[in-house]
Amino acid sequence: MTVTIYHNPDCGTSRNTLAIIRASGEDPVVIEYLKTPPSREKLLELIGAMGIAPRALLREKGTPYAELGLAAPKWNDDELIDFMLDHPILINRPIVETAKGTRLCRPSEAVLPLLDNPVREFVKEDGEKVAYPPA
């Protein structure tokens, strides 16, 4: 299976995750999900593969989360999916799919266990050093 990243190039965590994937020798499929949002079926597949509830994938910062009132418990999973499809910025990122699993890679080093040949050391954009496996 190819490595696929649902990426936002304006997000530092997403950029770091993509850099880790590439530094590990992978040539991932990069889907800029704000330009090419996933279908309902694909979004449901990703959420199911991650084993999380749709609410756990919602991004609050820099999104219409508050103005849409999404903190309210009244919204069911289907309605939350509708909001994410209508406003893809609400989908937290980056999501990475590999043969080893699918996960929301926050922090970016969460991608390492998903890779066949993960880098042993990586320096993030902000200078933070990551070692794998952790000491």
Description:
The protein is of the alpha+beta class and 135 residues long. It has a domain at 1-33 and 93-135: 3-Layer(aba) Sandwich (Glutaredoxin). It has three helices and six strands; from the N terminus they run E-H-E-H-H-E-E-E-E. The chain has a four-stranded mixed sheet with strand order 2-1-3-4. The relative contact order is 0.22.
Cα shape: globular
Q: Assign the CATH class of the domain at 1-33 and 93-135.
A: Alpha Beta
Number of helices: 3
The overall average pLDDT, rounded, is: 96
Order of adjacent strands in the largest pleated sheet: 2-1-3-4
- What is the terminal-to-terminal distance? 29 Å
**Full CATH superfamily name of the domain at 1-33 and 93-135:** Glutaredoxin
> What class would the helix/strand composition place it in?
alpha+beta
What is the count of β-strands?
A: 6
- Low-confidence segments, given as residue ranges, are none
* H-E string: EHEHHEEEE
Beta-sheet strand percentage? 15-25%
